[in-house]
Every structure is written in C-alpha cells, then in structure tokens.
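Meet my pick.
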Amino acid sequence: MKENWESYKKWISEATRCNKKYYYRGQSDKLWPLKSTFHRNSVPKGVSLSHYFSTIMQDINYQVAAFDAPVDLLNNAEYSTFLGKLQHHGFPTPLLDWTLSGYVAAYFAFKGAPLKPKPNDKVSVFIFDIDSWNKNFGSVTNFLGTELFVSNFAAYATGNQRMIRQMGVTTSTNVENIEPFILQKAKDAGVDFLWRYDMPASERTQVMKELNSMGINDMTLFPDFDGLCQHLKEVHFTSQQQIIPPPPPPLMPKV
C-alpha cells in the first residue's frame, strides 16, 4: 500500500473502528531518530541521568519557583506533573511526547515539513501499541536503574493546557534511541509493537488545510498568544500557495 495522506486517513479510520488504543507521534523528517529531548541534548555534552536528577532538577525547581510554588521532588505525583510541564515548554526531559490522536500527530509531522521539499522528503508518524507493550513488559519507571526501559508515564495536566488540547500522553525512558530498542524487543517477543508511517512532505499544504478544517491548528493546540500568532501566520502567509474556494451558494426553495 502506498503511504500518503489519503491512505493514512483510511488507516486511522480503521483503527478507530477496531477501538484500538495507540500512541501516535509525528516527526517532520523520516530520518530523525526516536529520542527524548534529554537524550538529544545530553549525549553530546555527556550529561548523565544521575546528574540530571540530582543536580539539574534541583536548580530548575529553584528557578521555576519564581513563577509557581516549588515542587516537592519527593512526591512522585508532583514530580511527574512537573516533568510533563517542563517537557511541553521545551526543557529537555527523559520523556517522549505522544498523542492519542492520529490527526494531531499528523499536524506535528507536517507542521515542521519543508515548504519547498525535495522529491524524497518525507514526514513520519510513529504508532505505538502501548497496551500490548505494557502487557508484555509492564510500566515501571526507574531512571537510575541499570535495566533499559520504555514505559507509559502518567502525568497530571495540572497547569498544562497544551497537554489537554493535544490529547497528550507521554512515555519515559533511559534508552538513547527508542525505535531499535522496541523493534528488538518485538523480535524477541514475536509481537509487533511499533510501526512508522512515512508520507510525502509535499502534501503539507493540503494536510494543514484539512487539519485546520477539523479544528486542529496552532491556535487550538497552543492556547496562548504565541499559538494564535502562529495560526495566523499559517493562514495568511505559509499556506497561501493554494486559494481557498468560496462557499457554495445557498439552496433556493423549490417553486
């Protein structure tokens, strides 16, 4: 089957009818590895998870207290919520963002796609069968342990409207490159857990217009002034390659 926007929508529709719960993650370049922001930023600098949690997070908690009450880092629920909020505001964490919506994942995949793509440029949506993964491997998070893991990570969305709007969910991990890790575990278990759907980046304009008509855009996913400005930029500048047709005329009563 050819992988493009039309076939992807059919796949999403079928998954919805089957009532399957998947985690989706969109990335704007099929060559990008599946890595947490912590691993993308820490590996070149040699920052360990031990140093991150013992030193860096102490400083972050102190600095963030200028905006909110300090977090009790001994309280797992508070700590989890804090990590989730940092993740959604761009600070590196060992969490990986996913969404329960295949369409929101497509938005994130195509949003960062090149406006003048080369013929072979493609975006990717990763699809993770989280329930099957949990059934086989559990969902225990131990960042400082020796065993490698990818786990479901439940963080409250307290003070994090972005997470709600994006139907956001997260996984936690101490694995640098997640895709080959999951694929190897799948091979060992004889069960598929992870798929990747690659679509042409050239479909960006069409996809973003369709998603906007569904109510999926910068303004709805990022409910603040920045999100509004990004949405207006998309409408008035970025997606002006195509002219939006006028609405059809009203129906006339029969005589």
